[in-house]
Specification:
Pathway: Porphyrin-containing compound metabolism. Probably forms a complex composed of NirD, NirL, NirG and NirH. All proteins are required for the total conversion of siroheme to didecarboxysiroheme. The protein is α+β, with helices and mostly antiparallel strands. It contains six helices and four strands; from the N terminus they run H-H-H-H-E-H-E-E-H-E. It folds into two domains: 45 residues; 75 residues, Alpha-Beta Plaits (2-Layer Sandwich), CATH 3.30.70.3460. A four-stranded antiparallel sheet has the order 2-3-1-4.
Length: 154
């Protein structure tokens, strides 16, 4: 991994510029070109070392969210997961080894909106969602020193 990629990873674990041209702003901060940034991000993604570049938003500031679980009979896992995945309010859908085996985060503009979606899920699947709304937000913002000369900003 070249030195520019290392500096990119260290510098932008936090604080990706919020502007019309974030990749150019990143390039300016690292004294390189926007093409250099885009190339390295593409390479990291192709290697499987990077899954996304984007904001982490506290859902309570942008609407409502809830962690939801379903107890899905094994023969229906694929079809129910496919149904859940097509809902625009759903993200972070994953399978667990438990009675409640399908877990996902439901987000929307309001709690009332989430309630409508939960009712629709129950109606369409015949499964009662376990609704676990966030009561207290916690922000866990980790940054790691990845290289010998790392200077991870907070």
């Amino acid at each position: 991994m070249d030195e520019l990629t290392q500096r990119l990873l260290d510098r932008f674990q936090h604080g990706v510029p919020i502007c019309a041209t974030p990749y150019q702003a990143m390039a300016n901060a690292l004294n390189c070109s926007e093409a250099d940034i885009l190339l390295r991000l593409e390479q990291l993604q192709q290697l499987g070392a990077l899954s996304r570049v984007g904001p982490v938003i506290e859902h309570s500031k942008a609407g409502a969210s809830s962690l939801v679980a379903l107890a899905v009979p094994e023969p229906r896992i694929e079809s129910v997961a496919e149904y859940i995945n097509q809902l625009p309010e759903v993200n972070h859908n994953y399978l667990r080894e438990h009675e409640y085996n399908l877990w996902f985060v439901l987000t929307g503009p309001s709690r009332d909106h989430l309630d409508v979606i939960l009712q629709r899920i129950e109606h369409d699947t015949g499964l009662a969602p376990l609704d676990l709304p966030m009561l207290t937000p916690y922000r866990i913002d980790l940054g790691f020193s990845l290289f010998s000369n790392s200077q991870v900003p907070l």
